[in-house]
Amino acid sequence: MLNRVVLIGRLTRDPELRYTPNGVAVTSFNLAVNRRFTNQQGEREADFIDIVAWRQLAETVANYMKKGRQVAVEGRLQIRKFENQEGRRIKVAEVVAENVQFLEPRSSSGSYNQGYDNSGGFDSNRSSSNDPFADDGKPIDISDDDLPF
């Protein structure tokens, strides 16, 4: 069996960081994901998907993400059922994030792409000036002796 969700979209509001009574961090946010097709009026529609992140991932998302930022979320779909205050049964579908990639630069002055996942791995800031594969428009001087094949 497989329960895997991958989404790319924009945050519709700032993430909300809370802590459980046991001190576990939990962050919830909403992601607007554009559909691949347009409606009859030629407008692109979006789905608004609830996302929940736990522990260190929750704190990282809450600290670095803001409304409007583009992110990639990888996780699993979870369906919860509960009774509200009026006694009605409520069914909620949400994605439990296991990995979040920040897809836009933090500011216009510097470029980075960082991500954090629940395995404890963190991709530090990767500036375009440090990228050996960045295209700076200059020809690359490589001799046959430099090639491994």
UniProtKB/TrEMBL annotation:
Any Gene Ontology CC annotation: nucleoid
Swiss-Prot/TrEMBL keywords: DNA damage, DNA recombination, DNA repair, DNA replication, DNA-binding
A molecular function GO annotation: single-stranded DNA binding
UniProt region (Disordered), positions on chain: 106-149
Self-association state and partner proteins as the record states: Homotetramer.
Function of the molecule: Plays an important role in DNA replication, recombination and repair. Binds to ssDNA and to an array of partner proteins to recruit them to their sites of action during DNA metabolism.
Name used for this protein in its record: Single-stranded DNA-binding protein
Lineage of the organism: Bacteria, Bacillati, Bacillota, Bacilli, Bacillales
